[in-house]
Write a structure and sequence with these properties.
The chain is of the alpha+beta class. The protein folds into 2 domains: 256 residues, 2-methylcitrate dehydratase PrpD (Orthogonal Bundle), CATH 1.10.4100.10; 127 residues, 2-methylcitrate dehydratase PrpD (60s Ribosomal Protein L30, Chain: A), CATH 3.30.1330.120. Helices cover 50% and strands 6% of the residues. It is built from 20 helices and 6 strands. A 4-stranded mixed β-sheet has the order 4-3-5-6. A hairpin with a 4-residue loop joins strand 5 and strand 6. Helix 5 runs parallel beside helix 8 and helix 19 packs across helix 20. The longest helix is centred in the first third of the chain and has 22 residues. It starts with 13 loop residues before the first helix and ends in a 21-residue tail after the last helix.
Length: 469
């Protein structure tokens, strides 16, 4: 719908408030602690995305992008260059396909997987710098997290997949920042993105999940480009009786959450959970509890008769594959995750190939793992707040001993952050799968100095590797 000038929407509408903030954001407005978290998100996401270029869903996305989009200035991590929309589509698929990318509890969102590749594609197309990329990432992340907080996490629990639902807002905001849109035009982009957004958690464990994230990114880019060409959209699409809050959020909308844009940074609080294991975050607390109990008790897998994991309802709702048959299903399987921890002492990318999944020893170990859903988990407000995806793990040994550990937050979450060395090791492990260890080391040093980069078109130039060209 195109509105005449005298009917332009009120600046108090949610989309307009977000658009004005995005348009006004400058790098100098971003406090250094927030910028440091944003840089961590960029580095982690690009490392995970490079590892993801080897996956079938990424190849599918890249092949479709090459057929659907024009050649352009933005790099595909799998190789080649397309217009920004096509590059965002392909690279977001790569960033999310392994489920190794970060999370935020502002909306239960995989925010960086959508925002970082989109911002990279758009800033590269605009001829921007590393500082411009950082600013666009902050704009996209904070925009989607603020709106997610305003409508609450009930959306996620109702079955909506919030990474796609809010990701298109983050992509539109990051794109608007990269294009230098003014507040009204940025609001048009965000409003249009919201009008067509969606995503269902029913797709978990399949290739549809990363491709929905990719589609959200492409939709956000297109929304910004259409707005830049003159599309105007009602800015009240969140508040409208036929709008987002009523139809998707069960009429829950707290506009005061938007007041904090630029004053309270969601990248810091609730913050970003960086994954140590390449599976759904809902499994991580149980993995950590098993690892710790086995180490403290001096247990091996042969000592264990059974493992029971008492978990909140959201964990059970996410981890629905009790006997996974594919790597995608295994990423959403508590028996698989716990059995890997029991047998290997950890869970890494190499444990998620089809041969490892078919190992009869692993299949047998999965039968020893049970999941007990605690319907009263969230009745304790403190536990609901501090352990939203926690686990109480009980190990019964062959000798009849019982070891119990409650893990509120997994390693890598805001409560138990990874060290700089652990962040770097994760990046090197992921990126080396695509470009080799030497180039991974070189790229890591380059990304850590991102704001010194004046030409993003050469960011992924490698000396001895033909990919990412």
């Amino acid at each position: 719908m195109t509105l005449p000038p005298d009917d332009l929407p009120s600046p108090t509408a949610a989309a307009r408030r977000i658009g004005d903030w995005v348009a006004g954001l400058q790098r100098s407005d971003v406090p250094e602690p927030t910028a440091a978290v944003a840089l961590d998100c960029i580095v982690d996401t690009l490392g995970v995305a490079l590892a993801g270029t080897r996956e079938a869903a990424t190849r599918l996305a890249a092949d479709d992008a090459r057929e659907s989009y024009a050649v352009g200035p933005s790099r595909l991590l799998i190789g080649g260059r397309l217009c920004a929309e096509g590059a965002a589509f392909a690279n977001v698929a790569a960033a999310h396909v392994l489920d190794f990318d970060d999370n935020s509890y502002a909306g239960f969102v995989h925010g960086s997987a959508v925002v970082v590749p989109t911002a990279l594609a758009m800033v590269e197309a605009a001829g921007g710098t590393g500082g411009d990329l950082l600013t666009a990432v902050v704009a996209g992340a904070e925009a989607q997290y603020a709106l997610a907080e305003a409508v609450g996490n009930g959306i996620y629990h109702a079955g909506w997949w919030t990474t796609a639902l809010f990701g298109t807002v983050g992509a539109a905001a990051a794109s608007a920042k990269a294009l230098g849109l003014d507040g009204r035009t940025a609001a048009d982009a965000i409003a249009f993105a919201l009008c067509g957004t969606g995503g269902l958690r029913a797709c978990f464990g399949t290739g549809a999940k990363p491709l929905l994230a990719a589609q959200a990114a492409a939709n956000g880019v297109q929304a910004a480009r259409l707005a830049a060409r003159g599309l105007t959209v009602p800015h009240g699409v969140v508040e409208d009786p036929r709008g987002f809050a009523r139809l998707i959020a069960a009429d829950h909308f707290d506009p005061t959450a938007l007041d904090a844009l630029g004053r309270r940074w969601r990248l810091l609080a609730p913050g970003i959970d960086t994954k140590l294991y390449p599976v759904c975050l809902s499994a991580h607390a149980a993995i950590d509890a098993v690892r710790d109990l086995m180490a403290e008790g001096g247990l091996t897998s042969r000592d264990i008769r059974a493992i029971d994991c008492r978990v909140p309802p959201v964990v059970a709702a996410n981890l629905t594959y009790h006997r996974p048959m594919t790597a995608g299903e295994a990423r959403f399987s508590l028996p698989f995750a716990v059995a890997c921890a029991m047998l290997h002492g950890t869970l890494a990318l190499e444990h998620l190939d089809e041969a490892a999944l078919a190992d009869p020893v692993l299949r047998q170990a999965m039968t020893c793992v049970s999941m007990t859903v605690d319907p009263w988990w969230n009745a304790d407000p403190d536990r609901a707040r501090t352990a939203p995806e926690g686990a109480e793990v009980s190990i019964e040994t062959m000798e009849g001993e019982r070891f119990v550990r409650f893990c509120a937050s997994a390693r890598g979450t805001v409560a138990r952050p990874l060290s700089a060395a652990e962040h770097a090791a994760k990046f090197r492990t992921c990126a080396a799968r695509a470009v080799g260890l030497d180039e991974a080391e070189r790229l890591h040093r380059k990304l850590r100095q991102l704001e010194a980069e004046s030409d993003l078109s050469r960011l992924f130039d490698f000396t001895h590797h033909a990919g990412c060209s």
